[in-house]
Specification:
This protein starts with a strand and ends with a helix. By secondary structure, the protein is α/β, with parallel strands linked by helices. It has two domains: 3-42 and 274-381, 3-Layer(aba) Sandwich (Rossmann fold); 49-264, Glycerate kinase, domain 2, CATH 3.90.1510. It has a six-stranded mixed beta sheet, sandwiched between helices. The protein has a five-stranded parallel beta sheet with strand order 2-1-11-12-13, sandwiched between helices. It is built from 16 helices and 13 strands. The radius of gyration is 22 Å and the shape is elongated.
Length: 382
């Protein structure tokens, strides 16, 4: 029996990672019911990270919080023992807002979710930072965790990155008591600092609705916030790689919560015990909506492929579209690839019918030479 490990990321705008895996599984088994298939959806630290943990057996915990613009949001985190996986995107992410608010959006809701996990006994929180709707340097997160950020008049500043231009003092004495012993681990694949031309506001502000004047305001606000934090903790971490992640949430977590940073996909693979599942696999199938140059820099499919290559397991990649050449993919251990665009060139139709197209691709994979080869190899070994 050929053992196939399905480890796709989401097809953004079409299907979750679990739905991608289910469609591929259905197609492969319809073509060859003898295949032994295990589904293990992945993510790279952005949206889908909690879902990947839950699919791997972690317990989902539902929480109510304020979304990025203050509206109520129902979200969840994942828990196993005293460890928790919290995802910025599902609490205060960009996809939760109908109207962008570059100066007023906040990470307060993220801190609410973290506080819930801490109060429930978590002493290790993995925090996925992708998909932020705000540029507040993690200030809202810290406020929800009990910190006070005050202006010159002694009053607390309102939420949102824009208000930090008037911040003069950080009082961290009221932080959640469990943070004294908790370890905060950031799952992050960007190395941007908080400030400057490659900082949080300059690089990511425009996609959150910031125009030229907003960007100037946010730049001043983040500089002031960095100064306030430096005065409170005695050191400047604004230039640390990853400080600009999540609209500067990385900075707040690193500087005030003592967080450490790890690559997103590597963190997720550890959470879902990917290497243990890989040890019994003859073939890995991974993929995402768009397999492009960006995928080569820390995205989930390439992380999966590299792990499989290290274990000597061949990889097949599936995507909605692909702009990376097959020779390049082979360097990462990908021996074959399929795209929805080959079956349906119209993008809108391809996205709408992604599940059906993936089932067809699943059939192709099951009958492909790479699977037939692994069948003969595994039969020979047994």
């Amino acid at each position: 029996m050929t053992r196939v490990l399905l480890a796709p990321d989401k097809f953004k705008g079409s299907l979750t990672a679990l739905q991608v895996a289910d469609a591929l599984r259905d197609g492969m088994l319809s073509a060859d019911p003898s295949l032994g298939i295990v589904s293990l959806p992945v993510a790279d630290g952005g949206d889908g990270t909690v879902a990947a943990a839950v699919s791997a057996g972690w317990e989902p915990v539902e929480v109510s919080c304020h979304g990025p613009t203050g509206l109520p949001v129902e979200t969840s985190y994942a828990r196993r023992g005293t460890s928790a996986v919290v995802e910025l995107a599902s609490a205060v992410g960009l996809e939760l807002v109908d109207s962008l608010d570059p100066l007023g959006a906040s990470t307060f809701g993220l801190g609410t979710v973290m506080a819930h996990a801490l109060s429930a006994g978590a002493d290790h929180i993995v925090l996925g930072l992708g998909g932020s709707a705000s540029t507040d340097g993690g200030a809202g997160m810290l406020q929800a965790l009990g910190a006070r950020i005050q202006g010159a008049d002694g009053n607390d500043v309102v939420r949102g990155g824009g208000a930090l231009r008037g911040a003069t003092r950080l009082d961290a004495s009221g932080l959640h008591p469990a943070l004294r012993r908790a370890r905060i681990q950031l799952a992050c694949d960007v190395d941007n600092p908080l400030l400057g031309p490659t900082g949080a506001s300059a690089v990511y502000g425009p996609q959150k609705g910031a125009g030229p004047q907003d960007l100037l305001h946010l730049d001043h606000a983040m500089k002031q916030w960095a100064h306030v934090v430096r005065s409170a903790i005695g050191r400047d971490l604004s230039g640390v790689a990853g400080a600009g992640a999540g609209g500067g949430t990385g900075f707040g977590a690193l500087a005030v919560l003592g967080a450490d940073v790890r690559p997103g996909i590597g963190t997720v693979l550890d959470l879902i015990e990917f290497h243990r599942r890989l040890a019994s696999a003859d073939l890995v199938v991974t993929g995402e909506g768009s397999l492009d140059e960006q995928s080569l820099h820390g995205k989930a499919p390439i992380g999966v492929a590299l792990a499989a290559r290290s274990a000597g397991v061949p990889v097949v990649a599936v995507s909605g579209r692909r702009t990376v050449g097959t020779d390049t993919l082979r360097e990462y251990g990908v021996v074959d690839s399929y795209t929805l665009s080959d079956l349906e060139p119209d993008t809108a139709t391809s996205m709408r019918d992604a599940a059906d197209l993936l089932r067809r691709i699943g059939e192709f994979i099951a009958l492909s030479p790479v699977v037939r080869t692994t069948i003969h190899t595994s039969e020979g070994v047994s």
